[in-house]
Design a protein that fits this description.
The complex is a heterodimer of chains A (about 675) and B (about 325). Chain A is mainly alpha-helical. Chain A has 23 helices and five strands. In chain A, the strands form two sheets. Chain A has a two-stranded antiparallel ribbon. A two-stranded antiparallel sheet of chain A has the order 4-5. In chain A, strand 1 and strand 2 form a beta hairpin. In chain B, helix 3 packs antiparallel against helix 4, helix 4 runs antiparallel to helix 5 and helix 7 packs antiparallel against helix 9. With about 325 residues, chain B is mainly alpha-helical. The longest helix of chain B has about 30 residues. Chain B has one domain. Helices cover about 70% and strands about 0% of the residues of chain B. The chains are: A mainly alpha (about 675), B mainly alpha (about 325). At the A-B interface, helix 15, helix 16, helix 17, helix 20 and strand 3 of A face strand 1, helix 3, helix 4, helix 5 and helix 11 of B. Strand 3 of chain A pairs parallel with strand 1 of chain B, so a sheet runs across the interface.
């Protein structure tokens, strides 16, 4: 069997698992112990097939499904296979976690969740193998709908329904743009297969129109500014494995779409597309990370952090567009490698963090950072594994988040070779913005990890928190190991990515002879090199040697005592920094970003209250006016509706008259 | 990896470990002189470290393993950084494993660990220190990165030995981009090493502490390792500064007589640099914490300006 048919078999298997779940909606034990692990197995198999198919030439298959004249075209090439591998690997771990996660609740019954969940997985896989606009849009919409129903699992809570509606709305606005983008791409030939679009010759401003429609449409799915507002609403509403899947994998399908359109379907990239994508990406990254620092809900914080990462990815795509417009394929390949690598990394560490919040949520029933704390003692496994995710997300060596940031910064540093001095000036500024975003990301992660897992428990009921179950632990450990391995073997991973960069940019990122499996050296060893394994080994050796030497030369005695804290005798958990407190410096420095509503007590208040609300300026400046405008228009149109048959008959009569007058 | 390379690598690490506390002692001594105080002995930091290693470690009751592991990780990261920075020679086989960007990453790793450890016990001062340290860090880190980028744009490489060799072999002149970068780097180093005007290493007023507030719960060997790591950090920053802005005298690859000459030159440069640091600390007053963003923002802008000047003028 060809890899493509194996992928299609995986899609069918997921659909079948989902249907079985639908048949037995209330048998929780069967669903969680059999169906979800089975789904995880399918995901893992899909990942292996996809990784094996990376180096194969593209293969296509026409399915006898769909409309009579419009069969579904499918195709598996390196780009699709790479994203299928992300889907398979992250999906497998998340499914395994779900096996221990979903319980009976007030909301959707488990069988229905199982169905929606597996349809979601299958739809994402279908997006990645689709080879014509029709099948792509069907899969894309199935993905949006399945995830909408998953987000609204707890549909009895009004806020969750509202969050789901916002998500669905923006997903559809984006889908319209994607549809229009495909309409432009087919170039009047009426051939909606991707093959036809590659062959179509777009003239004049049409390629740019297609690019902007794609940027808008896929940006809406990815959470690019100013279409990011659904992420911080939908992620806290969704169950944690669903958040993990949406943030870790679904956002990547948008990145896939953007790469597919920009580098595969379109040709003749313009340099200013790159500048626009680069600036938009960096603004998104900064915006996301600054808001993440101010959040007090752990899943909202991670949602904003996802916005930041999407910004970095889009900035990388912009840089690659810039380089390929100036016909510098090697540099474009480095930027694209950074993008693909970061997509992979983000799938791992963000899934890990979202799943860890799921475990915390299960054991404490608390999402607000202000009511957590000290969980490292009660949940040592989750705490240790989440630390790996937090450090990776903070972009620290030798973990995986650092490698992709390193590559992207390297790609920035090569710019002085560009012919246009304006762009030459812009790119260092972009590098500065990227460095700033990365540094604030570390701040955010210290806040996230420190407030949840470290310190004293802020509420008495946290003393009853328990560690995650076996399935959850295995899933978290698998993702954490993935973060470490992706971090310390970058040269190997980039070797695996090579077919994708060759397909998109025409050349591999690493030239022959520079670097080896141990040493990552993009252009040559003299220019830049990085070997996380050596760094890790040196740090570990120094740590072990120091422990040994100190204990041998002096001693290793330890005494336990109450905390010192400069001798203050009364230490309550309330004296620790809250999430608001920890984010306060960022809020102060970036005050103009936020819309802050403060309520300060006066000294004479009998019951002093302090409250502060952090709002999104864009929500008030952009979304509310649009919503008001839409409501106003609807009211005007609503005047037509009188509810009396005679009025409607008059309308018909007037219409007829008008038609007679104009058409004749 | 050549044997000479390995030996010079090891030699340099040992020199860094040995000289770092001495540099701190020297700065303290100079500062005391400048402030008309009786100076502590030069070797006091060594004695403090030895004394701390001999004591029993007292660990807070609710401390997690993270708290006990952190001093070792921070020390390890700083040793790793000391092995990359070309202080004596540019012939460093290990420098291939981590370039300038990774060096900044190593500093960030140490900072994140120490901030997490400060939050671990859950005291008011610990979390306050962690918050402020990360606050200073998120502004200082990109500025440092921009300074290093300026240098790497000049040399077309982010590997530190290559940067230093390029800078050392240019004809002597004042390069505007490097001048901007030098000012920015000095400001960043002051902030990163918890020096006046951002922080005060000898403060005893809890509310003004940044770095010290994070260490309140540490004692004995843990404190010794962190103090040593801080000294190494100061040493590393000084060596980066000297390598970028005064690269003369650093030995080249395989140049044994060069290394013999390089050692006294390095000591002389550090003596002068330490005195300058003490002078800056004496002449300036500590700022309020919320003035720090202006200070570090200026450093960041200067560093970005340095990069733009470099691109515009090509020098």
């Amino acid at each position: 069997m060809s890899p493509l048919s194996l992928c299609l078999a995986a899609i069918l298997a997921w659909l079948a698992i989902g249907s079985i779940g639908l048949a037995v909606p209330h048998r929780l034990k069967f669903i969680s112990r059999v169906l979800f692990p089975l789904g995880a197995g399918v995901g893992f198999a899909l990942a292996i097939v996809a990784l094996a198919a990376l180096r194969d030439p593209a293969s296509a298959l026409v399915l006898p499904l769909g409309l009579p004249d419009l069969p579904f075209h499918t195709r598996l090439d390196a780009l699709g296979a790479f994203f299928l591998a992300i889907l398979g690997l992250a999906g497998a771990a998340i499914s395994l976690f779900s096996a221990g996660y979903f319980r009976s609740s007030e909301g959707t019954p488990p069988g229905l969740i199982c169905f929606e969940y597996h349809v979601f997985l299958a739809a994402m896989a279908a997006v990645l193998v689709a080879d014509d606009a029709y099948f792509f849009m069907v899969a894309w919409e199935a993905m949006a709908l399945a995830s909408y129903f998953l987000v609204t699992t707890e549909h009895r809570i009004p806020e969750i329904r509202r969050a789901g509606f916002l998500y669905l709305l923006i997903a559809h606005v984006g889908a319209i743009a994607i549809l229009l983008c495909f309409g432009v791409l087919q170039g009047g030939t009426g051939d909606y297969t991707f093959e036809g679009m590659r062959a179509a010759n777009l003239a004049g401003a049409w390629p740019s129109a297609a690019f902007f429609l794609a940027l808008f449409g896929f940006g809406a799915k990815a959470g690019l500014l100013p279409l990011h507002v659904w992420l911080p609403e939908a992620h806290p509403a969704a169950p944690s494995p669903v958040s993990a899947l949406m943030s870790g994998v679904m956002l990547k399908t948008a990145i896939y779409g953007l790469l597919r359109v920009c580098f595969d379907l379109l040709d003749g990239q313009q340099w200013w597309w790159g500048v626009i994508a680069l600036s938009l990406g960096l603004v998104t990254a900064l915006y996301g990370v600054v808001f993440a620092a101010a959040q007090t809900d752990m899943k909202r914080l991670l949602a904003y952090s996802s916005i930041e990462n999407i910004g970095i990815l889009v900035a990388g795509i912009g840089l690659a567009l810039l380089y390929s417009a100036y016909a510098k394929p090697l540099l474009a390949a480095i930027a694209l490698t950074a993008v693909l690598y970061h997509a992979l990394n983000h799938a791992f560490f963000k899934s890990l963090l979202f799943l860890a919040t799921g475990s915390v949520l299960h054991s404490t029933r608390e999402r607000s950072l202000g009511k957590l704390g000290g969980l490292i003692h009660r949940m040592p496994w989750v705490a240790a594994l989440a630390l790996v995710g937090a450090l990776a997300s903070a972009g620290l060596p030798p973990l995986n988040g650092f490698v992709s940031e390193w590559l992207l910064l390297q790609a920035f540093l090569f710019t002085p070779t560009l012919p246009q001095s304006f762009v030459n000036m812009l790119v260092p500024l972009a590098a500065a913005a990227l460095a700033l975003a990365a540094a604030i990301a570390a701040y955010v992660m210290v806040k996230f990890y420190g407030v949840i897992f470290l310190g004293q428990p802020r509420e008495p009921n946290l003393a009853h928190a328990h560690d995650a179950g076996r399935h959850e632990r295995i899933a978290l450990a698998a993702l954490a190991v993935g973060c470490v391995l992706l971090g310390i073997f970058p040269a190997t991973v980039i070797g695996v990515l090579e077919p994708v960069t060759v397909m998109l940019a025409g050349t591999p990122a690493i030239t022959e002879g520079s670097g080896n499996w141990l040493l990552l050296a993009p252009i040559s060893g003299d220019r830049a090199s990085y070997s996380p394994l050596i760094v890790l080994v040196v740090i570990v050796v120094v740590v072990l040697a120091t422990i040994g030497i100190v204990h041998r030369l002096w001693h290793g005695r330890v005494r336990r005592a109450p905390p010192w804290d400069c001798g203050y005798p009364l230490q309550t958990p309330r004296m620790q920094d809250t999430a608001e407190g920890f984010g306060q410096p960022i809020r102060q420095v970036f005050e103009p970003f936020f819309r802050v509503e403060r309520e300060l007590p006066t000294p004479f208040d009998a019951a002093p209250r302090y409250s502060v609300k952090i709002g999104d300026r864009l929500w008030h400046a952009l979304y509310l006016p649009i919503a008001r405008g839409a409501e106003f228009a609807a009211r005007i149109v609503g005047l037509l509706q009188q509810g009396r048959i005679s009025v409607y008959l008059t309308y018909s009569f007037i219409t007829l008259l008008a038609l007679l007058f104009f058409v004749r | 990896m050549t044997p000479t390379g390995f030996v010079s690598q090891l030699l340099q690490l040992v020199v860094a470990l040995a000289l770092a506390p001495l540099l701190v002692g020297w700065v303290n001594q100079c500062r005391a002189w400048l402030q008309n105080k009786r100076a502590p002995p030069l070797a006091l930091p060594y004695r403090t470290i030895h004394k701390l290693f001999s004591k029993d470690a007292v660990v807070a009751e609710n401390a997690s393993p993270l708290c006990r592991l952190t001093p070792y990780v921070v020390f390890g990261a700083m040793c790793c950084a000391a092995a990359i920075v070309p202080s004596l020679a540019t012939d460093l086989p290990f420098a291939q494993a981590a370039d300038a960007i990774a060096l900044v990453g190593l500093f960030a790793l140490a900072r994140v660990f120490i901030a997490l450890a400060a939050m671990d016990i859950g005291t008011a001062f610990g979390t306050m220190g962690a918050r402020r340290e990360m606050f200073v860090g998120f502004l200082a880190e990109p500025a440092l990165l921009m300074v290093l980028f300026t240098a790497s744009l000049i040399s077309g490489s982010t590997s530190l030995p290559t940067i230093v060799e390029t800078l050392a072999h240019r004809e002597f002149a004042i390069y505007p981009s490097l001048a901007f970068a030098g000012v920015a780097f000095t400001m960043v180093s002051l902030a990163e090493n918890a020096r006046i005007p951002v922080d005060n290493p000898s403060t005893h007023l809890e509310l003004t502490m940044i770095h010290e507030a994070m260490l309140l719960e540490y004692s004995a060997r843990h404190l010794a390792l962190i103090e040593w790591a801080s000294a190494l950090k100061l040493f590393n920053y000084s060596c980066i500064g000297l390598a970028l802005f005064l690269p003369a005298g650093i030995a080249e690859a395989g140049d044994w007589p060069g290394i013999v000459v390089a050692a006294p030159i390095l000591v002389a440069k550090l003596v002068a640099g330490g005195f300058a640091l003490a002078l800056i600390e004496t002449l300036s007053a500590k700022m309020r914490i919320f003035r720090a963003p202006e200070f570090l923002g200026t450093a960041f802008m200067l560093a970005v300006l340095a990069m733009l000047v470099n691109l515009l003028l090509g020098s």
